[in-house]
């Protein structure tokens, strides 16, 4: 009898076992399969549909995000902006972007990632569509465009936290690396779309058409998702704000203990450094090619690098999962992927300082961006699971503005690319030295993904 009482005493109470999706249906009434106490997946047909829609909305997100960099040269000439002022407009996006990272993750846990994504997309779609109108409201264009970019960053900041929340809730852990690399292709498809179609629209119809196109297509996406995927039994616009019964309970996190871990700081710093170089390249490459090769076709340098990024992203996700399945240590694989994404890519960024050939410049940029996609299988996966990336967005803001200031003062791109290469070296060195793959947060409770 005493043994039975002792056994009962050590068993955890039933109400402390977190099984957030047990016996639930999605909002369209289709049953969601539970494969264990912590992981649930959509039915295969549902998963394929959502994967396609998530890929598409990420594509449109980057069209909207990159509309300003693509049009920056034309707008700077029209409004008389200097390089520093252009840097302020481009960098304002990241001020807003860093403010809603944690909020997006919290909201996704509370009302469901799908709902947060719908609200976010419909909001930034409207903001993108009205951006050209804001340039003529009576304020200085520098002020109105800076404010619009800030608000766009606020609205888009919740996208990736909600995307990661959806993947964590609906996809098994062993498949997340490849899935995140696949969804990351939406970024490169968006860059291809805005670089190719957007450049043609810029030449034919003016810079406003680039914003109108992204905004209207995103509104169409929002309507289709609301009508076809989320508008099921019991679902209404009011229910977007009601806590979702299928959303996992958010366990408490001891952030103080978490931030004492060197491996956490290694991931944050590496992601911070990667974000800074990635955002700066995306923001300033169109201006770089316009300055250095004024007679080059826009669609060439705005398309080719992102065309290369598509297969390299999928290759990186596949090879990393393959190496782990073959028995390689997860931490070793993550460090290898990140070395390619930052170390090897940094070499090609440095080579941009030494080339006067348009073909060589496009080749260097393409290789640098292609290799950078390995980040999706490196730090990105660990950061999504263990640490917030708000600091990375903030640092990206500072470097975007600093790049414009350096170009304005020195008149040279050499300093910019040298700084980017140095930042990459610092980030990947710290990650290789201190990075780990083990979970270090929420030691005493079942885990849910944190925001990134």
TrEMBL record:
Assigned keywords, A-Z: Cytoplasmic vesicle, Lysosome, Membrane, Transmembrane, Transmembrane helix, Transport
Location in or out of the cell: Cytoplasmic vesicle, Secretory vesicle, Chromaffin granule membrane; Lysosome membrane
InterPro entries xref list: MFS, MFS_dom, MFS_Na/Anion_cotransporter, MFS_trans_sf, SLC17A9-like, Sugar_transporter_CS
GO biological process: ATP export; purine-containing compound transmembrane transport
GO CC aspect terms: chromaffin granule membrane; lysosomal membrane
Its membrane topology: Multi-pass membrane protein
Gene Ontology MF terms: purine nucleotide uniporter activity
Transmembrane segments: 47-66, 86-104, 116-135, 178-198, 204-226, 264-284, 304-324, 336-352, 358-375, 387-407, 413-434
Major facilitator superfamily (MFS) profile domain span: 50-439
UniProt catalytic activity: GTP(in) = GTP(out); ATP(in) = ATP(out); ADP(in) = ADP(out)
Record family assignment: Belongs to the major facilitator superfamily. Sodium/anion cotransporter family.
Described function: Voltage-gated ATP nucleotide uniporter that can also transport the purine nucleotides ADP and GTP. Uses the membrane potential as the driving force to control ATP accumulation in lysosomes and secretory vesicles. By controlling ATP storage in lysosomes, regulates ATP-dependent proteins of these organelles. Also indirectly regulates the exocytosis of ATP through its import into lysosomes in astrocytes and secretory vesicles such as adrenal chromaffin granules, mucin granules and synaptic vesicles.
Name this polypeptide is given: Voltage-gated purine nucleotide uniporter SLC17A9
Species of origin: Labeo rohita
Lineage of source species: Eukaryota, Metazoa, Chordata, Craniata, Vertebrata
């Amino acid at each position: 009898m005493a043994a039975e009482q002792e056994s009962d005493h050590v068993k955890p109470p039933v109400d402390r076992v977190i099984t957030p999706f047990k016996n639930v249906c999605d909002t369209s009434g289709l049953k969601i399969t539970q494969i264990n106490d912590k992981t649930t997946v959509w039915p295969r047909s549902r998963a394929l549909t959502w994967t396609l829609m998530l890929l598409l909305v990420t594509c449109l997100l980057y069209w909207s995000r990159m509309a300003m960099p693509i049009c920056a040269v034309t707008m700077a000439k029209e409004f008389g902006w200097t390089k520093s002022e252009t840097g302020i407009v481009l960098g304002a996006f990241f001020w807003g972007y860093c403010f809603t990272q944690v909020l997006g993750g919290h909201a996704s846990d509370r009302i469901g990632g799908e709902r947060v994504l719908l609200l976010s997309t419909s909001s930034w779609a409207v903001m993108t569509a009205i951006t050209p109108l804001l340039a003529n409201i009576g304020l200085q264009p520098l002020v109105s465009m800076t404010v619009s970019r800030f608000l766009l960053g606020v609205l888009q900041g919740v996208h990736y936290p909600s995307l990661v929340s959806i993947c964590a809730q609906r996809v098994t852990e062993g498949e997340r690396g490849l899935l995140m690399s696949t969804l990351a292709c939406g970024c490169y498809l968006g860059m291809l779309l805005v670089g190719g179609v957007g450049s043609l629209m810029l030449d034919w119809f003016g810079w406003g058409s680039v914003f109108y196109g992204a905004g209207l297509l995103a509104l169409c996406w929002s309507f289709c998702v609301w009508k076809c995927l989320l508008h099921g039994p019991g679902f209404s616009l009011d229910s977007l704000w009601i806590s979702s019964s299928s959303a996992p309970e958010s366990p408490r996190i001891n952030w103080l203990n978490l931030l004492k871990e060197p491996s956490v700081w290694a991931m944050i710093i590496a992601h911070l450094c990667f974000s800074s170089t990635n955002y700066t390249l995306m923001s300033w490459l169109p201006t770089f090619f316009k300055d250095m090769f004024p007679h080059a076709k826009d669609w060439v340098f705005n398309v080719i690098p992102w065309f290369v990024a598509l297969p390299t992203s999928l290759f990186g996700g596949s090879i990393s999962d393959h190496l782990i399945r073959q028995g390689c240590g997860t931490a070793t694989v993550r460090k290898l992927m990140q070395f390619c994404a930052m170390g090897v890519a940094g070499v090609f960024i440095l080579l941009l300082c030494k080339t006067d050939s348009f073909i060589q410049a496009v080749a260097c940029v393409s290789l640098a961006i292609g290799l950078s996609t390995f980040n999706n299988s490196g730090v990105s996966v660990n950061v999504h699971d263990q640490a917030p990336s708000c600091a990375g967005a903030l640092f990206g803001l500072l470097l975007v503005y600093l790049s414009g200031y350096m170009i304005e003062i020195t008149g040279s791109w050499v300093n910019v690319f040298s700084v980017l290469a140095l930042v990459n070296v610092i980030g990947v060195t710290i990650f290789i030295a201190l990075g780990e793959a083990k979970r270090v947060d929420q030691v005493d409770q079942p885990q849910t993904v944190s925001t990134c």
